[in-house]
Write a structure and sequence with these properties.
Blueprint: H1 5-20, H2 26-29, E1 57-59, E2 67-69, H3 75-85, H4 95-106, H5 115-135, H6 139-148, H7 155-167, H8 170-175, H9 179-192, H10 202-212, H11 226-229, H12 252-257, H13 261-271, H14 279-292, H15 302-309, H16 314-320
């Protein structure tokens, strides 16, 4: 057992590496010993520092080259770091956002998602938008909307939303809410209105979809929230407003909170009638396209990140689509 232990360790670790890493990652393709160099405990350190189950990390500048250290709990975070090393980021401040978004994409089991999951996301976004539009002409709906956005949006962004709604300034209305906000707002609508206050085909369609889909698979579309709840799995849940995480010294919290590209992608797929089984092939290439064009003002500029996600379009999808999925011209 002692003699085969190194080979068994490498074989088992290789399964985890294969799940999270890609052959085109520079650290993988350029270093044939990358897997074998994994350090589960820190070498040449004190007893206290060499305790097991250290959080995973990417150690650079070692004599043996870049090495992964620590255990495999929360490994998606370092998977994002490995992926980011081969990306020419558009902005020096975007590293944390790139790392957490790519890590969340690689932690996703895309095969679990179905077409009706994308439809549920699309209907939730449309229902929330419908509620906002109808609130411009209904005092009762506006009151409920104002109440529902408490805690969902920051005080400043909530004020901007309601003021723009009163002015019918739709550009600023939609800039005040993200896709993640709209998805949470749709849940509030269903809780508050057992009967639809205004006739609209969107609300009945959402209720029918909810009756047939409990939304349990939508967690695969959420971010990995390791910096927020110490869990490396993907979670789609209602969180505090983005602004709550801006004040933390390290940008990891706001970067994890803002890693919502998969939600934008799911809504885009539903709006264009695309199948869920195509998402795995295009998610990372599309995210990289958006990040290459990203310009942010500082380490916590989540506004620009969300705006970049909203620029997803058919041309970008065509460029990212595998050759065997592209339509013949």
């Amino acid at each position: 057992m002692a003699l085969i232990n190194p080979q068994v360790t490498v074989a088992l670790a290789g399964i985890v590496y294969a799940y999270y890493l890609r052959s085109y990652d520079l650290l993988v393709s350029e270093d044939p010993l990358f897997l074998r160099k994994h350090q589960y405990i820190l070498l040449n350190s004190s007893f206290e520092e060499s305790k097991p189950f250290l959080p995973p990390d990417l150690e650079k500048g070692k004599p043996t080259g870049t090495t992964l250290t620590g255990c495999f709990a929360g490994f998606s975070a370092v998977a994002g770091m490995v992926a980011e090393t081969g990306v020419r980021s558009a902005d020096e401040h975007s590293e944390a956002f790139v790392v957490h978004q790519l890590g969340a994409i690689r932690a996703t089991r895309w095969g679990k998602l179905r077409d009706d999951d994308l439809r549920l996301i699309g209907l939730r976004v449309r229902a929330a938008r419908e509620w906002i539009v109808l609130s411009a002409g209904s005092a009762g709906l506006r009151t409920e909307l104002a109440d529902a956005t408490i805690g969902l949006l920051s005080l400043a962004r909530r004020s901007d939303l309601l003021a723009a709604l009163d002015r019918r300034d739709w550009k600023n209305v939609w800039s005040a809410v993200t896709v993640g906000d709209l998805i949470a707002l749709a849940d509030e609508y269903l809780k508050r209105f057992k009967l639809d206050p205004h006739p609209s085909p969107v609300f009945p369609a959402l209720r029918r979809c909810v009756d047939g889909n409990d939304g349990s698979r939508l967690h695969w579309l959420g971010p990995t929230l390791g910096p927020l709840n110490n869990c490396g799995h993907t979670h789609l849940m209602r969180l505090a407003p983005y602004e709550h995480f801006e004040g933390f010294l390290q940008p990891a919290r706001i970067a994890a909170r803002s890693s919502e590209f998969k939600l934008y992608l799911a809504e885009f797929f539903d709006r264009n009638g695309l199948p869920a089984d195509l998402m795995a092939a295009v998610a990372e290439p599309l995210a990289l396209q958006l990040f290459r064009g990203l310009r942010i003002t500082d380490l916590r500029d989540w506004h620009s990140v969300q705006a970049a996600f909203s620029r997803l379009d058919a041309t970008m999808l065509q460029d990212a689509m595998p050759a065997d999925h592209r339509p013949e011209r």
